[in-house]
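Board notes (copied after class):
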Amino acid sequence: MPALGVRVEDLSKTLGRTAALRGVNTVFEAGLVHGIVGPNGAGKTTLMRVLTGLLHPTKGRVEYYDEAGPVTPARAKYETGYFPQEPSLYPDLSCREHLEFFRDLYGLSEADYQPRMQELFDATGMSAFKERPAGKLSGGMYKKLGLMCVLLNRPRLLLLDEPTVGVDPVSRQELWELVYGFAGQNTTVVLSTSYMDEAQRCAKVHVLDGGFLKAAGTPEELMRKFQVKQFADIFLKP
């Protein structure tokens, strides 16, 4: 199945008395790795949750599509994988047992599950830790297991909310390699991050600040737009 793209039109979201998103218009083209970047409170997590369907817009709309045309929100939600900032895994269940749990949750057949399970263990380098309980994994391995569970169902849209927060530099690099290994023709990746070096690795970057979309484009396009030599300096521009 081809990757899902997303169009966001005049999107606003109010949480209590806070305007978390203010008239956001942007497109997450299918098959690319997109970054949502901004300081704390910019609206990154709110936008991610609206894209998943966990939150409904106060105003505006979200449209999903693939190469064949529009995709219904219900279908898109089924084919979307969401990785929250703090994945909730069961500390007493092993890595293998977690994948078996998600196999049953997704209703995967053994014919689909077995090769996908092995592919994920091989891709993450976690094969030697199949029987280790989640509660005894390192921070980086814990994040890898959470990502494996999300990827098990082959999502056409993968949403990652600050996936590398709290992990060491080596694990950050490994998680990025894992993301790029599964992104492409069949999967669109949208990730939020506070790390400007991570945002710069994305094919397209969507810059949020105070709930407003300041700009969207390739890292090179944004550097020209904001007239900076260092990508991290774009937030220094008014």
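Comment from the instructor: The longest helix spans residues 110-124. Helices lie at 44-52, 73-78, 95-106, 110-124, 139-151, 169-182, 196-199, 219-226.
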